[in-house]
Amino acid sequence: MGSNPLPILPKYPTITPPPYTGMQKYMSPSLFQPHRARQAIRDAHAKKIPPLIALYAGVASVPLMRFSASLGFDAVWIDWEHCSCNTETMTDMVHTAMFVSQGRTIPWVRVPGHDHAAIGFALDAGASIVIPQVDTVEQAKHVVSAAKFGTKQNGTRSAPPFRLLPGISDQSADGVRDVWQNWNDSAAIMIQI
């Protein structure tokens, strides 16, 4: 029995992944939390980044979202107001956009009206929200209140207990403020007047 030494394998260069691009820069520490969409809009407006390019998703279809999320759009607008979509499908579409795109696509949900529960469902899923048909200051205040945590923000939103897993999805985006303050500052509220 001869001793054959193991062949020496050539050394391959270490492959360094490219830096995050696009909306991954605005991701929270967990894909279970909303992107920092407010900051992305501010940066696009200030021309620090290119204009945001979004896909309009007017069909309630998780398989279609799975395909669309891999196309590289900055955002996707899920029109919960104008498509026949239940809460579970909307949530699945938001999660699919976030997870399939690996955080490259910010999900937005146009909620069906000013309903406190619908606003909470969309935000709990991890989306930023679009609120249609806001005609008065009182309606705008109601929408913001329904979307915010804590009395300092005049918020009436309740904590989603099963969305926050200790050490996994409850991390703070900046390591200083708590997760509730980060959520209040991250998700964007776009009001359609």
Automatic annotation (TrEMBL):
<keyword id="KW-0479">Metal-binding</keyword>
<dbReference type="GO" id="GO:0016832">
    <property type="term" value="F:aldehyde-lyase activity"/>
</dbReference>
<keyword id="KW-0808">Transferase</keyword>
<dbReference type="InterPro" id="IPR015813">
    <property type="entry name" value="Pyrv/PenolPyrv_kinase-like_dom"/>
</dbReference>
<dbReference type="GO" id="GO:0005737">
    <property type="term" value="C:cytoplasm"/>
</dbReference>
<keyword id="KW-0670">Pyruvate</keyword>
<dbReference type="GO" id="GO:0046872">
    <property type="term" value="F:metal ion binding"/>
</dbReference>
<dbReference type="InterPro" id="IPR005000">
    <property type="entry name" value="Aldolase/citrate-lyase_domain"/>
</dbReference>
<protein>
    <submittedName>
        <fullName>Pyruvate/Phosphoenolpyruvate kinase-like domain-containing protein</fullName>
    </submittedName>
</protein>
<keyword id="KW-0456">Lyase</keyword>
<dbReference type="InterPro" id="IPR040442">
    <property type="entry name" value="Pyrv_kinase-like_dom_sf"/>
</dbReference>
<feature type="domain" description="HpcH/HpaI aldolase/citrate lyase">
    <location>
        <begin position="54"/>
        <end position="193"/>
    </location>
</feature>
<dbReference type="InterPro" id="IPR050251">
    <property type="entry name" value="HpcH-HpaI_aldolase"/>
</dbReference>
<dbReference type="GO" id="GO:0016301">
    <property type="term" value="F:kinase activity"/>
</dbReference>
<dbReference type="Pfam" id="PF03328">
    <property type="entry name" value="HpcH_HpaI"/>
</dbReference>
<keyword id="KW-0418">Kinase</keyword>
